[in-house]
Design goal:
With about 600 residues, this protein is an alpha/beta fold. It is about 40% helix and about 20% strand.
């Protein structure tokens, strides 16, 4: 699995000097987006976890990109005036861990080229195209085994000048080391050599392959004429191809599963792999650490994963975390708190229910009195009660429970990944979540983030549950790097992609996006004259429960179908005899989409007489 990419961006772009005198060539804009950012987004879409940019001229422009894309690292080639692309690659080499994708910064290209290289089973592969007639071409020769034999800009030195270097290459760590060694040992001779010419030299003793895509759509930009060609001739074809890849967009405003990105959907289209392979074990191990790190220190907490929905993770917590013959206190202030209590009763756990309003804040003083009234061993609560959108203040309640020596169990299924959380500061021992919801993966993986100290106490407890036992699942994975039972392989690849995109956006920025979408919705609800069941100050910003309008023409099914016809899915409430509908802003929801939804909401409600 390729995790890193290197973009060579040290050049001065002298043939575009009137434009690039004070700006790197990579910041030329097409369709309002710098070409370097278009490349970065394509790399992210293809599962690249870290992008190293080798800079030089106007390096601060690239350094500023780190603020927008935290997965970027920049390395400056201080001698960029006197070296070429190999000199810039050499300064990046120490940061490269394994096989990587190498790109030039002045390209626009169809994303499929990245997938071609990533899916090519061979090591060290140069992406090539047929003739482009673009000027300044770099031609390639290769033998009957597609092994590189020559690289030249001089067409007279090429046997068959119908193959051109694109500027995107897959390189192994071993070949990179050889490239750097050859360059440094012959610095006087090779100071201004380009990386492709170094590959040509190494190809005499190492197979460097050429993967030719005859009609590949791409362009390099070196001068004004090439820029105009890229804008007017090549970019429209790239956009046309992107439209072919797009999956029908359905915006899910129901509480889950949430809307996912196409890149996450496509991440499931991968080579088959036995989940007992070390490679897949490494994938799961990395996912475990990433999921933990969003809310806790990995030395103090760990994540245990199951093939399940979020409810499966809840069941794992309840059945595993209450000591033998222990007493459990559960807060029930909605359907999901009630579900926790039902799970406990299924396992015949001694359970007391603390009943609270479904739409008003918990009486914390009364709850603490309950903590004192019995010798409770464990306490369970839902952080975000998606029945109504009520956000329970677990950051206040759980530390109180801990004060009385009580294990804290939190359903964080529809809050974790959507807002900043620190489990240690919040006093959370165990928290359940899912691969979908805020993380934006595909539904199918339930997981529990566990306080290691509390988890280890379960080692000698009798198992109430075979499949969902937390400690047994943890112990088996630690010893084998495998899941006890067959995991949903493709769903894990989708979750990996969703985690990459979570890191790019950051949890903080994601919460800002959800909050802004919530503000747009709230303003529209007030303008229309609809009523919300939970006061704004107690809402989560993720779910808004709205009372059904009191007009004769209102019919939820008709309302649902109307919205569905525009690509929006909505969901009814879960409050028994109180009629509500719920609007979620979770997953891959955009400002423009929530604005469009509110316009349709106003139109529909006005039509039925609200």
């Amino acid at each position: 699995m390729i995790k890193q990419a290197v973009i060579l961006a040290g050049g001065m772009g002298t043939r575009l000097q009137e434009i690039t005198e004070k700006m790197p060539k990579g910041f030329l804009e097409i369709d309002g987006i710098p070409i370097i950012e278009q490349s970065i987004r394509k790399l992210i879409n293809c599962g690249i976890e870290e992008i190293i940019i080798g800079t030089g001229h106007c390096s601060d422009w690239y350094d500023n990109l780190v603020k927008k894309y935290p997965i970027i690292k920049t390395v400056k080639n201080e001698n960029y005036h006197n070296t070429s692309s190999m000199g810039t690659l050499e300064v990046c080499a120490s940061l490269i861990e394994n096989e990587f994708i190498l790109l030039e910064s002045d390209l626009i290209y169809d994303e499929i080229g990245l997938k071609v290289l990533i899916n090519d089973a061979r090591e060290n592969v140069i992406l090539a195209s047929g003739k482009t007639y673009s000027s300044d071409e770099v031609y390639l020769d290769f033998d009957e085994s597609n092994i590189l034999t020559n690289v030249s800009k001089n067409v007279d030195k090429i046997n068959n000048p119908n193959t051109e270097l694109v500027g995107i290459t897959k390189i192994s760590k071993d070949i990179l080391n050889q490239m750097v060694r050859l360059y440094n040992e012959n610095l006087d001779k090779y100071k201004k050599i380009d990386y492709e010419n170094v590959l040509q030299i190494l190809a005499k003793n190492n197979p460097i392959y050429v993967h030719k895509v005859n009609h590949y759509v791409w362009a390099e930009i070196d001068d004004k004429r090439m820029f105009e060609r890229a804008v007017n001739e090549i970019y429209p074809h790239i956009l046309e191809n992107e439209e072919l890849y797009k999956i029908k967009r359905e915006v899910l405003l129901n509480p889950g599963p949430s809307t996912t990105k196409d890149s996450v959907k496509y991440a499931q289209v991968c080579a088959d792999i036995c989940p007992r392979e070390l490679e897949f074990g490494d994938l799961m191990d990395n996912i475990e650490k990433d999921l933990t790190s969003f809310g806790a220190n990995c030395k103090e907490y760990t994540t245990i994963m199951f093939a399940s929905s979020g409810t499966g993770a809840d069941e794992a917590m309840i059945s595993s975390c209450v000591p033998p013959k222990g007493k459990l206190l559960v807060v029930d202030n909605g359907s999901y708190g009630s579900r926790l209590a039902q799970i406990a009763k299924t396992y015949n756990i001694d359970t007391t229910i603390f009943k609270s309003s479904t739409y008003e804040p918990i009486d914390i003083e009364a709850l603490e009195h309950e903590f004192q009234s019995e010798n409770y061993d464990a306490f369970a609560i839902v952080h975000h009660e998606t029945t109504t959108g009520l956000l329970n203040p677990v950051e206040i309640i759980c530390p109180i429970a801990k004060k009385y020596g009580i294990i804290t169990i939190v359903d964080a299924i529809s809050s974790y990944g959507g807002m900043p959380m620190n489990f240690k500061e919040m006093g959370i021992d165990f928290a359940s979540c899912t691969s979908n919801k805020h993380f934006g993966g595909m539904a199918g993986i339930g997981f529990v983030i566990c306080n290691r100290e509390e988890l280890y106490k379960q080692k000698k407890w009798p198992m109430r549950n075979y499949y969902f036992n937390l400690y047994d699942q943890y112990k088996y994975f630690i010893e084998t790097k495998q899941s006890r039972f067959t995991p949903p392989v493709q769903t894990f690849y989708a979750l990996r992609q969703a985690i990459i995109e979570t890191k790019v956006e950051t949890i903080e920025k994601r919460f800002e996006r959800f909050t802004e979408c919530w503000n747009i919705l709230i303003d529209a609800v007030k303008e229309i004259g609809l009523e919300m069941i939970v006061n704004e100050e107690n809402q989560s910003h993720f779910i808004t429960a709205i009372l059904n309008p009191n007009v004769p023409k209102y019919d939820f099914d008709e309302f649902h179908d109307y919205m569905k016809s525009f690509g929006f899915t909505i969901y009814p409430g879960k409050l028994g005899n109180i009629g509500t509908f719920r609007i979620a802003n979770m997953g891959d929801i955009t400002y423009d989409e929530i604005i469009m939804f509110t316009k349709l909401l106003k139109k529909y409600m006005n039509k039925i007489g609200v």
